[in-house]
Amino acid sequence: MVGVTCDPSDCFRCPCGRTAPCADAGDTEPATPVPGSGPSEPSLGDRTDDAPESWGSLEADTPETNDPDEILHDAQSRDWDQAFALVSGGYDSVAAAYYTYHNAPFALDGIIHIDTSIGLRETTEYVEAFADDLGLELHVADVRRDEDEYATRIETYGFPGANETAHKWEWVNNKDKPLQTLLQQFDGTTLLISGATREESEARYEKVNADGLEIKDGHLYASPLAAWTPSDVRDYIDDQGIPRSAVVDELSHSGDCLCGAYADRWLELDVIHDEWPYMWAYIQSLEARVIDSARNGNMKKESYEDYVLWGHGSTTERELDQRLGNREMTLCQACEPAAPGIGSGDAFQTVTEAALQLDESEVPDSETAFRDAFDLTQAIPDSSDEHPLDVLRRGYDALDEVADRLGYEDHQELVEDRALEPARADGGERK
To answer: What are the Phosphoadenosine phosphosulphate reductase domain coordinates in residue numbering (predicted)?
Structure first.
């Protein structure tokens, strides 16, 4: 696995403002010809027969999407210096990389995976194993400026909401900037194999060209599976015997970026809590930081205080202040709103969310009250160069080992059982 070795302040090159205009121009209706109009339309004279008058088909001329081999052969004919497959860990990108590796008229020089800093470690490990199975070198794009870090930005803007602008801004900072920084290590033009498919969603259909090729930031992007449907991708994964991802099977996406922009807080956090408790603990820790930032008046605007919970589902002005330029998205799975937002009731997905219901007089008079109570990352020494997610994961793994030695299935069962200790003061049996 190869990472970026240069210092972020030296090698970072902001890609904003250097891309082709955004393709999101909205739907347009085909024009209807009007007899007698047009700069050089000939006169047809008066009709003397009863034959029906026809002006031809008024349907839009939509080009047919090229098949994988056509796209790859077309890509070969272009001028580029090295070729890499972009693999997020989702099945679209995995299938595209696998198909290209076995069928392209050129060889791949490696695989690129982007560490968003808010993704499941199991996803990165899945990509590492995939690259190893193909015998390809893995390059991890993980260099970004401190101010672009997810954990840094949310203390100013709050968590992202459920709209395209918010999602694009997260994509730019979490994925595109680290990718552009990594690509600077290579000379010339790079061919990047993407897993984007036109049939995945309406948004993707408009973003992916029919020929599967696009030039952006001076590099050539090829989407060989542009014509495939999601079922085509799944069938190919199964037919080729490609190992399945436990993350995709649980979350229905790669899990490489859990920024929360289009997340369903209730459904997704519940799964994360059960399957990857270290990520749940990290999200709760981030919520504690954001809540304290809002309490102390450190948010960009007072209205951002509404964005202190992950996956809040808001679609209002917070995202508009991020000053996002027009960008294309070919790196990540197309996101569609999934009934986001926080419902009413007494159930809460994090302890921080429950604590927000407390009266102000019940909260300690401290600028770091929520962090002190709920931010587990505060226990990590400042001298540590590990990402908090790696430290938390190792800690939860250690708890599971202790629970196993004590006869519990996992640490969650251990905690639940020990929480009942006060009720056993009268001599009740312990597990």
So the answer is: 84-246
Do 281 and 414 lie in one domain? The reply is no
Beta-bridge partners for 214:
221
Residue 83 sits at φ, ψ, to 5 deg, of -130, 130
Tell me the CA distances in angstroms from 155 to 152, 211, 269, 314, 316, one per residue in order.
6, 42, 20, 17, 17
- Select, from the ranges 258-267, 325-334, 407-416, the one with the highest average predicted confidence (pLDDT): 258-267
Distance, in Å, from the CA atom of 369 to the CA atom of 375, rounded to the nearest integer, reads 10
Mean pLDDT, the chain, integer: 80
- Which of 166-180, 278-292, 316-330 shows the lowest per-residue confidence on average (mean pLDDT)? 316-330
Angle at 120 between CA 351 and CA 326, to 5 degrees: 100
Q: Characterize the bridge pairing of strands 213-216 and 219-222.
A: antiparallel
E strands within 131-287? Answer: 138-141, 190-193, 213-216, 219-222
Domain assignment present for residue 244? The answer is yes
Is residue 10 domain-resident?
no
Distance CA 192, CA 139 (A): 13
Instruction: Please tell me the distance from the alpha carbon of residue 409 to that of residue 404, in angstroms, as a whole number.
Output: 6
Q: Which domain holds residue 239?
A: 64-379
Looking at the structure, tell me whether residues 387 and 274 fall in a common domain: no
Looking at the fold, whether 311 and 386 belong to one and the same domain comes out as no
d(Cα 119, Cα 254) in Å, to the nearest integer? 9
